[in-house]
Amino acid sequence: MSNFIFNKTDIQGVYLIEPKLFGDSRGYFMESYNKKAFEEAGLDYTFVQENQSCSSKGVLRGLHFQIKYSQAKLVRVLSGAVYDVAVDLRHSSPTYGKWFGAVLTDENRKQLLIPRGFAHGFYVMSDTAVFSYLCDDFYHPEDEGGIRYDDPELNIEWPQTQNIVQSDKDRKLPCFKDLGIIF
Fold first, then answer.
1. Catalytic residue from among 64, 69, 91, 120
2. Alpha helix (H) residue ranges in 21-167
3. Active-site residue 133, yes or no?
4. How far apart are CA 45 and CA 20, in angstroms?
5. Burial per residue of 41-76, b for 16 or more beta-carbon CB atoms within 10 angstroms, e otherwise
6. Distance separating alpha carbons of residues 123 and 126, to the nearest angstrom
7. Exactly one of 45, 123, 133, 149 is catalytic; which is it?
8. E-strand spans in 9-124?
9. Would you tell me which of 5, 96, 105, 130 could form a disulfide with 81, CB atoms 3.0–4.6 Å apart?
10. HEC string of 31-45?
11. How far apart are the first and last CA of the chain?
12. Is the peptide bond before 63 cis (omega within 30 degrees of 0)?
């Protein structure tokens, strides 16, 4: 019996995962990842790098991807709350150009599994958020790409669109239609 509930989303390959929590008066315990359980669910990934970021309320990171060295990611919030988004960039996919979004918090402990070939980003809803990314390939800064968070063709329904805080690099990202075929 698995310590995870693997919920398929409307986007092929994207899963919203709910770890089972074991708690008592001392607190709780949960598995955040178990290779065997994931493989039994048909999700065969080998994660090689973990990243962590801390961001303030209103920060929007993304939408980012790597081109040649595409990464699958298992993401979760360690502290706070974010609205997390994955956009399908796989040209041959029936869900090409579609997106999925979910609220991930330290309280609901939900995780999002994003396969290779996706753009990813998140918006911080709490005062601060600590975010963890498990990646199945290493980060290559020369290989990164991105899409504007407010791209009109994607029409992502972010929880907030005013007073967004972004990096200069993210403000200059192209629109989806200008990417061409990537994956």
1. 64
2. 35-40
3. yes
4. 20
5. bebebebeeeeeeebebebbbbbbbbeeebbbbbbb
6. 9
7. 133
8. 15-19, 22-24, 27-29, 49-56, 60-66, 73-79, 81-88, 99-105, 111-114, 118-124
9. 105
10. CCCCHHHHHHCCCCC
11. 35
12. yes
Residue whose tokens read 């178990």: 34
Q: Token pair for residue 84?
A: 């997390």
User: How many C-beta atoms surround the C-beta of residue 178 within 10 A?
Assistant: 11
- 140 counts as catalytic: no
**Residue 134, Ramachandran bin (φ over 0: left; ψ between -120 and 50: alpha; else beta):** beta
* Dihedral angle, C-alpha 176, 182, 112, 11, nearest 10 °: 80
Give the pLDDT confidence of 57-111 residue by residue, as tens digits: 999 999 999 999 999 999 999 999 999 999 999 999 999 999 999 999 999 999 9
- How confident is the model over 128-161, as pLDDT tens digits? 999 999 999 999 999 999 999 999 999 999 998 8
